[in-house]
Design a protein that fits this description.
The chain is mainly alpha-helical. It contains six helices and two strands, in the order ββαααααα.
Length: 129
């Protein structure tokens, strides 16, 4: 879902979802999962890159003209606005959770066991009832 955030003195559209995975991979050669793995080791340098690509995908989704700014500009904008940083990063991680949930549901469906049946089966195994 596209949302707007004030960055660089104006309201800008941002979109996190499947499109950002493609844009980030096409442009950097890296996957977003590798970025998340980097964060697990304490390297948060890619967070502004995520927002940069979310902004670029937001422009595409809104069919608006590509503006002239760099990932460095976005990084500085985020440093100047902790509220915007929080909004963007929260939206990014929410989109990751949503994608993860969809993928898990699809995997369960492929295995022929809906999530509730699997949970019930596990509960029965643990309690013996």
């Amino acid at each position: 879902m596209t949302f707007t955030v004030e960055l660089g003195g104006k309201m800008r559209p941002v979109l996190f979802g499947q499109s950002i995975f493609k844009a980030y991979k096409d442009e950097t050669g890296k996957s977003l999962l590798s970025l998340v793995a980097d964060m697990d080791t304490g390297d948060f340098s890619g967070l502004s890159e995520i927002v940069y690509w979310g902004l670029r995908v937001g422009e595409l989704a809104q069919k608006s003209e590509k503006e002239s700014y760099t990932s460095w500009d976005v990084s500085l904008w985020l440093d100047e606005s902790p509220k915007a940083f929080d909004t963007c990063i929260s939206a990014f991680f929410d989109s990751m959770k949503s994608i993860k949930n969809i993928m898990e549901k699809q995997a369960e469906n492929m295995n022929g066991e809906p999530g509730d049946a699997k949970k019930k089966k596990l509960a029965t195994a643990n309690t013996g009832t």
